[in-house]
Design a protein that fits this description.
The chain has helices at residues 18-23, 47-52, 60-86, 88-116, 121-151. By secondary structure, the protein is mainly α.
Length: 152
């Protein structure tokens, strides 16, 4: 393992050196010098401080929080409104039907990918429907990503 003093100080034009990242408190990335890189040994905090302290830029907790927020999305936030419109019984029935449909569709996708011996949706779409279906999938993914960025 390299220690923090062995980082190269010369960089390409336009890049920030590793040593300035460690010493510049106003930068986006702040690396604490340590004998072991990425080792939490020098930064032992109790559960309360780890869980409820401020979220720093680029922190692991901040990244996990952002990932959960984007994965949960507005669908979960609209669930109580849908239950109010449908009623408790019909709402629970719709949730169960949605869960069964999600499990069944995931099973079909996994089964098809194992039969076709492919590793991703793009290759599976190409095997199932050719280049046109693969392009349609890619366009749909781009539209979804664009919509997600706009909505958040």
């Amino acid at each position: 393992m390299k220690d923090a003093s062995n980082f190269p100080s010369k960089t390409s034009p336009g890049l920030v050196s590793q040593t300035s990242l460690m010493t510049d408190p106003s930068g986006d990335i702040n690396i604490k010098p340590s004998r072991m890189v990425l080792s939490p040994v020098n930064d032992r905090r109790n559960f309360w401080n780890r869980t409820f302290s401020k979220l720093d830029k680029g922190s692991l907790r901040g990244s996990i929080f952002a990932l959960c927020a984007s994965a949960i999305g507005s669908g979960v936030l609209s669930l109580p409104f849908v239950l109010k419109l449908c009623g408790m019984g019909l709402g629970i029935l719709f949730i169960c039907i949605g869960a069964i449909a999600a499990c069944w569709s995931m099973y079909l996708i996994i089964d098809a990918s194992m039969i076709a011996k492919v590793k991703n949706y793009s290759q599976l779409a190409n095997k199932a429907g050719g280049l046109k279906l693969e392009r349609l999938l890619q366009i749909n993914i781009l539209i979804y990503m664009f919509g997600s960025c706009i909505s958040y």
